[in-house]
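Handout for the seminar on molecular recognition.
Each group receives one record of this type.
Step one: identify the two inputs.
Step two: read the structure output and locate the region that could contact cobalamin.
Step three: write two sentences on what you found, then compare them with the reference statements printed after the record.
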Amino acid sequence: MKVLLIYPEFPDTFWSFKYALRFIRRKSAYPPLGLLTVGAMLPAGWPKRLIDLNVTKIAKSDLAWADCAFVSAMAVQRDSARQIISKCKEAGLTVVAGGPLFTAEYEEFPDVDHFVLNEAELTLSPFLEDFASGCAGRVYKTSEFCDIRLTPTPKWELLDLRQYGGVGVQFSRGCPFNCEFCNVTVLFGNRPRMKQPEQIITELDNLYDLGWRGPVFFVDDNFIGNKGYLKSKLLPALIRWRDGKKGMPFNTEASINLADDKHLMRMMVEAGFDAVFIGIETPEESGLAECNKNQNKNRDMVEDVKRIQRAGLQVQGGFIVGFDSDARSVFQRQIDFIQRSGIVTAMVGLLQAPKGTKLYDRLKKEGRLLGQMSGNTDGTTNIVTRMDFKVLAEGYAHIIEHIYSPKQYYNRIKVFLREYRPPVIRECSSIQRFLAFFRSVLRLGIFGEERFHYWRILVWTLFHRPRMLSLAVTFAIYGYHFRKISHRHCP
Ligand code: B12
């Protein structure tokens, strides 16, 4: 069997980082870790090619070479997935699909021959056995969760790492919390399942040996889901691993209660983490109660964010407007929170209901669903909102325009740099970094609408926080991307 592993194209979004990646001449933010893992589970004797449509086009010769296509996708890749599936069918390939999009919505893809849903660790072998005996069924799914201590090391050699801004490593799956809008507990359960530290060390060694020195994203749903195991097993192993290494800063996703544990933050920084993404969602207690985000309730989240920043971790934040309980004042409250906390990378979206979540089921009962979510921060929603949609859309557009306007955005960088105590990770100097700086001078510092703010922050950083100069340039480049995207997505 000759297999094409295909990853559909992402639209231009907040997370695509498309306009920022151009500065470092990379094509995509992250490689498809799910497909690389599936690649490692397929029979060794099957020749494999990975086609990530975010970095390359699919050639006729690839389609002619292959017998079957294994397609992975998340909801935002829906349109591109449909196109590539029909292309593969036209070329006479057997199409097998898996990953979050299909696990949630497989009924919507009549052209796919076989669905191998949920975690491939459990569903792929039964499919392969049936396939080998010529009696493969259409849908393989399970309600069980696998033991990820048995998950193989991703097959990194299938791709050209030089095309990516960062890479992913997964330590755990699942999250102990129950936010109403989130898919994670449906897909991966409430009890975090962890890999053995040795598995992670092997994955990191593989990447290091392949020459990778860029950022590594621990793609866990909630990295601190099991703090005890983290502190006693993984972090000590990572601290040992980092000794003598250069580059490879780590980042991850965690819940806000990270701020309560100084020891954990200290260990994470020592292990080489320099950023965490946190679902803040809303400063309104009523919104937090509505979506069951109890871990964010009754706390001073601005102060929490600052505590994490002071520990040496940049905080990136997710924010949502469009809760039933949101009043018109929510837009300004969100802006104030974002500006005061110094969360430079602030992702703001309208509440959407992913299929399979408690939110989806509730709204279905209430007759308030409008098809599928776009899964995107594009100013759309699949919910009949309580607030008049025109008011909501205008309020949303106002937040986006405000927080990414050069003045506010660069102010935020300064608020952040004042608070931040950067960890000591031995950086890898590279010609690409220097060139990125040079390109930023041209595009942002000379031709950009933000040029005044750009030079002001560089000069300020040079005098007050000289060690963070390269971070300030990185933020300036991100800001360019966020502005481009926001012009596109605001209705
Ligand atoms: C890392 C990550 C990202 C990264 C990068 C993803 C990338 N390029 O690969 C970033 C930060 C960019 C990202 C962004 C977004 N993400 Co995201 N992300 C994740 C996260 C945390 C981990 C994904 C991962 O790498 N997992 C590790 C691999 C090993 O697991 P896996 O991909 O699931 O693959 C396994 C199975 O699914 C299956 N499988 C996967 N593919 C295939 C294919 C075949 C053929 C087979 C047989 C099996 C199979 O086998 C694998 C092994 O078990 C997941 C949550 C999660 N735990 O999966 C959310 C998740 C995938 N993201 C999600 C969402 C909604 C988003 C955003 C829309 C968020 C937003 N509001 O903007 C954006 C969209 C991206 C964009 N560009 O606009 C949702 C998707 C829901 C859905 N129904 O599609 C998830 C599930 C999180 C959630 N809360 O619901 N994300």
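Reference statements: The first strand starts at residue 3 and ends at 7. The chain is about 45% helix and 15% strand.
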